[in-house]
Design brief:
There is one protein chain. By secondary structure, the protein is mostly helical. It has one domain: AhpD-like. The chain is 81% helix and 0% strand. It has helices spanning 7-17, 19-24, 26-40, 47-60, 64-76, 81-117. This is Alkylhydroperoxidase. One of its GO terms (molecular function) is peroxiredoxin activity. It comes from Stenotrophomonas acidaminiphila. Keywords: Oxidoreductase, Peroxidase.
Amino acid sequence: MSAIPSYTDLTRDISRNLTPLRTHNADVMQGFGALSKAAMAAGALDEKTKELIAMAIGVANRCDGCLGFHAKALVRLGATPEEFREMLGVAVYMGGGPSLMYAANALAAFEEFSTAQG
């Protein structure tokens, strides 16, 4: 795992790097956007719960970009540090040692976006 300067920079860079895909793979990107919107829409589970699930999967799959985007969304949705840490416990339980390492990174992302908002 390489050092990440900040999750704010990482998410901005990923968004910028997706520009060619939005242009040259517009149908795929629009389809992914529609899937995301449908999956995250409030239903039996609210949006915050769904974002907590998405973050746990990002931790378990060791996806740095996922940590940034979902931490930012969770801060926007008002997730508490307690909720976030409890979700990390489940992610570590399901993913073992590698997930523990990414849980630390996820917490750093959440704290970075919380500080920026507050």
